[in-house]
Amino acid sequence: MWHYALALAVLFLNVNAASLRQPIHKIVGGIAVNIEDFPHQVSIVYNNTHICGGSIISDKFILSAAHCYIYIGPINNFRVRVGSTNSTAGGTLYIVKDVHVHTSYNETTYDYDFSIFELNDTIALDNVTSRVVRLTEINEYLPNGSNLTISGWGETRNPTESMEHLRAVSVPKMEQLGCIASYLFLNIVTDRMFCAGYRQGGKDACIADSGGPVLNDNNVQVGVVSWGVDCAQARYPGVYGRISSVRQWIREITNV
């Protein structure tokens, strides 16, 4: 019986993991914002379609999630849109020169779900609609209950709200044991991950918010949108990549 239950759990995880790669749902329960409010935010575009979020960490590098690149398609079909509130127009599109996926990335569990998009040209940073975000440092502590802000584009499950307009939502950081317990039979929550959200659901990031930034109240990026069960579901908080755990890797790739 235990092996049967485990097999069902693994099957559910694989189906859910596959769905996370599809650009379908995004910020739920948030508010409309402008790029001037989140000038570090970028849209990762594949074949002229927004698929993921990312953040400007230097004038040549964008931090995102590994699953935003793995299995998507050839690198020459990727672009990064910088400096626009709208995910489909405005700002500047930059050609992607290379994508650095964390060498320990696990496509089943989403452990080490980090990638760095290297651009062909430098971003013309204006500090109004495009600005470098400050990253948390190695092993920097993220207190339970910290207010975290997630931004991104897409479906809000409200037909009166545009899917193309940038939105943001704030959620509290959950204690790690509670995070692990929430996904006990679905996936492994590792030390490279943390959870944020409300136990009753209602506010969350979701699929094509993947790779987008998670900021604390000091506007320091502490996480990257990674995975979860559906969107804003009760008992299933969003799971985010913990930047402090891979800070040295980021520095080695980007010198940031």
In brief:
The chain has 256 residues and is α+β, with helices and mostly antiparallel strands. 13% of the residues lie in helices and 29% in strands.
Q: Can you characterise this structure?
A:
The protein is an alpha+beta fold and 256 residues long. It has two domains: 39-132 and 248-254, Beta Barrel (Thrombin, subunit H), CATH 2.40.10.10; 134-244, Thrombin, subunit H, CATH 2.40.10. The chain has helices at residues 2-20, 176-182, 247-254; strands spanning 31-32, 41-46, 49-56, 61-64, 78-82, 92-101, 115-119, 134-135, 147-152, 167-172, 193-196, 213-215, 220-227, 238-242. Strands 1, 8, 9, 10, 11, 12, 13 and 14 form an eight-stranded mixed beta sheet that branches. A six-stranded antiparallel barrel has the order 2-3-4-7-6-5. Strand 3 and strand 4 (61-64) form a beta hairpin. Residues 1-26 have low confidence and may be disordered. Belongs to the peptidase S1 family. CLIP subfamily. Keywords: Digestion, Disulfide bond, Hydrolase, Protease, Secreted, Serine protease, Signal, Zymogen. InterPro entries: Peptidase_S1 (IPR050430), Peptidase_S1_PA (IPR009003), Peptidase_S1_PA_chymotrypsin (IPR043504), Peptidase_S1A (IPR001314), Trypsin_dom (IPR001254), TRYPSIN_HIS (IPR018114). GO terms for molecular function: serine-type endopeptidase activity. It is found in: Secreted.
